[in-house]
From TrEMBL:
GO CC term, one of those recorded: membrane
Membrane-related topology note: Multi-pass membrane protein
Protein name from the UniProt record: Palmitoyltransferase
PANTHER family according to UniProt: PALMITOYLTRANSFERASE ZDHHC16
Transmembrane helix keyword on record: yes
Lineage: Eukaryota, Metazoa, Chordata, Craniata, Vertebrata
Amino acid sequence: MEKMFYLSNSEKERYEKEFSQERQQEILRRAARDLPIYTTSASRTIRYCERCQLIKPDRAHHCSACDICILKMDHHCPWVNNCVGFSNYKFFLLFLLYSLLYCLFVATTVLQYFIKFWTNELSDTRAKFHVLFLFFVSAMFFISVLSLFSYHCWLVGKNRTTIESFRAPAFSYGPDGNGFSLGYSKNWREVFGDEKKYWLLPVFSSLGDGCSFPTRLVGMDPEQASVTSQNEYARSIGSNPPFPIKPLSESKNRLLDSESQWTETGSEEGIVRSGTNNHVTVTIEN
């Protein structure tokens, strides 16, 4: 984890002394002002890990088994006794592929003896049990690993993690399960890299640093991205949004804008608070 996501000693001291969650969030907002963060928690607050005492990068989560924050965490795998995340997700997929091919090899090579066993053409030896055991175990593992491998291939094509498939990440315009999707081809390259010759080899070739990720709206035209973000947000909350939606062109696709901050109110008025003392009130007329 990069040092810029950790609070400084002075910030950490002020954070621990505050008992108000609003004051704590204000400290976190100031600390995260220049960080490449686009997502928040479901309650629209800064994602902060109390155990690791750091601001969580996008797609990072704390693993209770490993007791550490994992970059682009997918899940904790008991089969490998480790967390699957940014640094080893490609290796996990190759592990599934290699296991799949191995089970297929065992099942096909034993199949002829398994057929002889059922037709009573196999000699009455202790090898009968071995043939029966090998075929059933390899076949069952092949089916189960094939299901898991197919599911993760689907996740790679969507550029999602297992956690994000169950709980969509929250952006400035609301939850969006496709927020990090860049298209099928680019999504695969995010995990396996640009060099196809390394795709099937157990060498690290994933793109990025694991702390920041390109989002679906970054490369769009500002006006188109603004309309897209508003449509995504409207679908996530219904037809009556509780407060005005900030155009993406104003926020520059940054969740934590240092110059302005939008707040929610219980009425039909949205208040924009800027770094100056000027206040502009926007009233929505029905």
